[in-house]
Amino acid sequence: MKRVVVLNVVGLTKSVLGVHTPRINGFLEEGEVSTFAPAFPAVTCTAQSSYLTGAREAEHGIVANGWYDREAAEVKFWKQSNHIVQGEKIWDKLRREVPGFTCAKLFWWYNMYATADWTITPRPMYPADGSKVFDVYTQPMEMREQIKMDLGNFPFTTFWGPNASIPSSEWIAESAKWVEQKHQPTLSLVYLPHLDYGLQKFGPGAPEMDVEIQRIDTVVGELIDYFEAREVEVVLLSEYGISKVDKPVHLNRIFREKGWITIKEEQGTEMLDCGASKVFAVADHQVAHVYLNDASLRDEVIEVLSGTPGVEEIRTAEESFGLSVQCSVDGVQSQHGETNQQSSVALQRSGDLIAVSEENAWFTYYYWLDDALAPDFARCVDIHRKPGYDPVELFLDPALKSPKLKIAQFLLKKKLGFRALLDVIPLDASLVKGSHGRDKVCEDEQPIYATRGKHMPVNAAEEVFERICAAVKV
């Protein structure tokens, strides 16, 4: 039985390749590389779900990294249950068709309760005292303590936030070797996020990226050597490219000025009340899902979005995730198609309208008009509480005179049992220099699928599924 490892190197595109990627270059020169239009939106959860189900977004239902739950009237981001993803997963299909097939899914999203044989995913513990304890979740459950005993604790603070850096990808790489040594999976799915951090923080082409690219090239090169020495075929894959940006767009502030946003005051700060708002946006990089609790405002919302600098395109939910109805800033064009049970799930999750930014723009979740009234979580790394994605979490507030001292004081208070906020994140969206999410990008910013030998071309995100299946079954 042929064995395969898929190295998902986030942000790896032709635009990144060069003198700082000698190991990756060597691999690509000996094989075949496909570039393809990314999933829409071109974000982690959507892309990975397309790869692992072979279905389009309308079918697997993952319309973003997070969305508004209309029944609960809450925005839910970065949930982890694999049950959220509709459709048959690649490991279930291959288990039916290939006797003895096994799969390891390491740090890919929607990893909890997946039916893969071995899984690891970041998962903090949240005790009743309000604290947060960094940890991982594994299946089988006993693997958690075994792998931590051998590799040490997962360096959680380097996985996201101002300290995001190479140690998290290095630990994940070591975990892939650890699982290989103990279990020899038929298919190993390995997520390496490092490039994502610097490309969003510094921007493509920034001089600071040279060393970051070299670091991930080293990790990838070592994994290629390790797995090929064990006669495991290596596939290099990515999810999207990063575009250089310099224009944050604050849709919720615009909607608030129109009187469509409802704000609830809580202890001197402002909280967005989605359920009571007439219109609001859930921002996810360069795509924003716009929800209309008051459908009578639809035409006016389209007019406002059309006139907003930084908005390039407006799509309807039906166009993207169900019936094909196109709506752009240049006008409205209708086409008719078919929906199914899966696409109705996608339509329920999707915004009524989807705004797509210009190439150099991205959407914030910001809704307050005065920074003094921003919610307490705005200045913290808090990926679940914020009603949208916040790449500003990659930065320490430059206005802080002694950020290290502030962090040390927070850790001391935490150790002593006091509650405290690690409020070190700035509220300056102009700091962000890279973003993604658009599906209409140049070839140099498209994701790649590469193997040492020949493979059938990949023309769309969902085709990755069949290419991986074919690699295992050859």
Your description of this structure?
- This is Alkaline phosphatase family protein.
- There is one protein chain.
- This protein has 474 residues and is an alpha/beta fold.
- The chain folds into two domains: 4-242 and 437-473, Alkaline Phosphatase, subunit A (3-Layer(aba) Sandwich); 247-394.
- Helix content is 30%, strand content 20%.
- The protein has 14 helices and 22 strands.
- It has helices at 22-29, 44-53, 57-60, 90-97, 143-151, 166-183, 194-201, 209-229, 251-257, 298-306, 317-321, 341-349, 403-415, 463-473; strands spanning 4-9, 32-35, 66-69, 74-77, 103-106, 118-122, 136-139, 187-192, 233-237, 243-244, 247-249, 263-266, 269-272, 279-284, 287-292, 311-316, 325-328, 331-334, 353-357, 361-363, 434-435, 448-451.
- A hairpin with a 2-residue loop joins strand 12 (263-266) and strand 13.
Describe the structure concisely for a colleague.
This protein is an alpha/beta fold and 474 residues long.
Task: Lay out the secondary structure.
Layout: E1 4-9, H1 22-29, E2 32-35, H2 44-53, H3 57-60, E3 66-69, E4 74-77, H4 90-97, E5 103-106, E6 118-122, E7 136-139, H5 143-151, H6 166-183, E8 187-192, H7 194-201, H8 209-229, E9 233-237, E10 243-244, E11 247-249, H9 251-257, E12 263-266, E13 269-272, E14 279-284, E15 287-292, H10 298-306, E16 311-316, H11 317-321, E17 325-328, E18 331-334, H12 341-349, E19 353-357, E20 361-363, H13 403-415, E21 434-435, E22 448-451, H14 463-473
Parallel strand pairs: 1-8, 1-9, 5-6, 5-8, 11-20
Antiparallel strand pairs: 2-22, 3-4, 6-7, 9-22, 10-21, 12-13, 14-15, 15-19, 16-19, 17-18
Helix pairs in contact: 1-8, 6-8, 7-8
